[in-house]
Amino acid sequence: MSRDATDLERELRVESQFCLDNGFALVDAGDGTAVLACDVLERHTNRHGNAHGGLVAALLDTAMGVATRASGAFDNLGTASLTINYLRPARGRITAHARVRRSGRTLAFCEAELLDAEGRPLATASAVFAVATRSASPPA
């Protein structure tokens, strides 16, 4: 049974309380891609006044998870591995651009880039997600 565009749209939203509390907003998603944004507030900063690395990691991870769901092939997923490369300090409005590179029956491989308001790269990330459809049987 395949899902129609309305079902997929309904599922492609930022809904975890953690993400909502941190101001993550879905900008765009579809066909294995996603764009999420966040305004770095004082509560998000480290002692240097830059976005805390945990905020950056969470935004990139969430964007890649949404991109995986946006592929339309999977209903359930969990991060199996996440690698972040911090390139420069993040401040102001930051945007994570994510895409699925390849997916199979049980794993999806993604990449993402975090940009500042001027389009400069702030961080890159890659992740592997364990994936399953709702109809798949849970492991024994």
TrEMBL record:
GO terms for molecular function: fatty acyl-CoA hydrolase activity. Its EC number is 3.1.2.-. It comes from the Bacteria. The keyword Transcription does not apply. Keywords: Hydrolase. It is an enzyme of class 3 (hydrolase). InterPro entries: ACOT13 (IPR039298), HotDog_dom_sf (IPR029069), PAAI_dom (IPR003736), Thioestr_dom (IPR006683). Residues 48-120 form the Thioesterase domain. Gene3D superfamilies: Hotdog Thioesterase (3.10.129.10). Belongs to the thioesterase PaaI family. This is Acyl-coenzyme A thioesterase PaaI. The gene is paaI_1.
